[in-house]
Amino acid sequence: MKKAFSLIIVSALLTLLLAACGSSNEKPANTAAPTNGENQGGKPVTISFMHFKSDFTDGVAKIVEQFETENPLIKVNVQPVKYDDYYTLLKTKLAGGDIVDVFTLNAGAQTKLFSDGGYLEDLTGKPFLADFEEAVLKSQSTDGKNYVMPINANPIAVFYNKQIFTDLGIEIPRTYDALIEAAKKIKEAGKTPFALGWKDPWTLSMWLSRDLPSNSALVNNQPDFFEKLETGSVKFADNPATKTMIEHAQQLFELGNKDQLGVDYNGAVDLFAKGDVGMMYMGTWPLADIQKKNPDLYNNMGYFPYPFSNDESLNKLEFNPDASIAINTKSPNKEAAEKFLAFLASKEGGDLWVKNLNSLSYVKGTETNIAPAVNDLKPYFDSGELYDSQLYLAKTTIDWGTPFTQSLQKLFFKKSTVDQVIQEMDDWIAKNHN
């Protein structure tokens, strides 16, 4: 685990350093797929591409449009799906024999699940993988093979309104207690401390699935907690970080906007973009929306690592893989599908992803200047103060985030207690996974 942990840090730094050294005249490590549609004997072909980046439907469409321009005999039927519904729909389609040629996955547990099901083409050794650092490929491998191609990664941190912080004399919080004190000061000033879009389960689950493994592994020294949870040798009640996470969630809820469970992701972004909210915990996904809705805020907001603990030395920058991409092993259009992946793996494709999705690409030499706020994180990249909490979840297939969000909702409305939530989760694990 420690070796994998160091690899992801090294790979992230290498990617960024290479990008910083690149120039606009740099050639990609290999060229994109041959143009003029030299596929399937020169016959027109349509491939389906299902993805969970539904908040960037237009951005993905622009990438596909450029690919189709360079490969006129290949058409891509793009199928965006909201993340909360994505895996259920994908599993249903594949199990029912509905061919999806290319689709996005999260590296780790989801890739393992689909590879074990026999749905993923082995991409190990494909020429287009040469455009990625070996450490990145190794960190996203499953059983020693590459079933997915890395696409992009994101810091997961806290956006903040610099004007509000300045007006109230708030310094960037480096510990969890300092974060809560800052939030209380914002609330006392009559403004909303946190923009929460917890109507969408993934937004709360995203936070849970980082706070809990971070405190488990780094504060309580239980890096293998989720691996043991998978085998039934431990319970949530055995881990002090479980109670810590629940208490943190309750505090954020109380310091969030009104109707936290009635506001979705887009609503939370709208609230923050209006300029009256102090902070928003999120990846880089909302940057394009904020730029459109409030250019002044976009150019004058900041970004700092989420301080999950009160030990400042542990509170490094969360840097996670986002979308990876796979080819269906049953696809009748594998040649065309591979050309699509080769395009995404080229510098051209990587730069298009950065430009249109406001995200850092794993492709060597791609652009890194995606927004002024992200530049605030440069010291963490330069010093290597990065970590990936998702590595601690890599060996479990338990979808604990979904039932946890449901149990927490009862706690938020005083219909349950912290201990009852923990007991509910242990009962759920015993019933469904042991």
UniProtKB/TrEMBL annotation:
<dbReference type="Pfam" id="PF01547">
    <property type="entry name" value="SBP_bac_1"/>
</dbReference>
<dbReference type="InterPro" id="IPR006061">
    <property type="entry name" value="SBP_1_CS"/>
</dbReference>
<protein>
    <submittedName>
        <fullName>Sugar ABC transporter substrate-binding protein</fullName>
    </submittedName>
</protein>
<dbReference type="InterPro" id="IPR006059">
    <property type="entry name" value="SBP"/>
</dbReference>
<keyword id="KW-1003">Cell membrane</keyword>
<dbReference type="InterPro" id="IPR050490">
    <property type="entry name" value="Bact_solute-bd_prot1"/>
</dbReference>
<feature type="signal peptide">
    <location>
        <begin position="1"/>
        <end position="19"/>
    </location>
</feature>
<comment type="similarity">
    <text>Belongs to the bacterial solute-binding protein 1 family.</text>
</comment>
<keyword id="KW-0813">Transport</keyword>
<dbReference type="GO" id="GO:0055085">
    <property type="term" value="P:transmembrane transport"/>
</dbReference>
<keyword id="KW-0564">Palmitate</keyword>
<keyword id="KW-0472">Membrane</keyword>
<keyword id="KW-0732">Signal</keyword>
<keyword id="KW-0449">Lipoprotein</keyword>
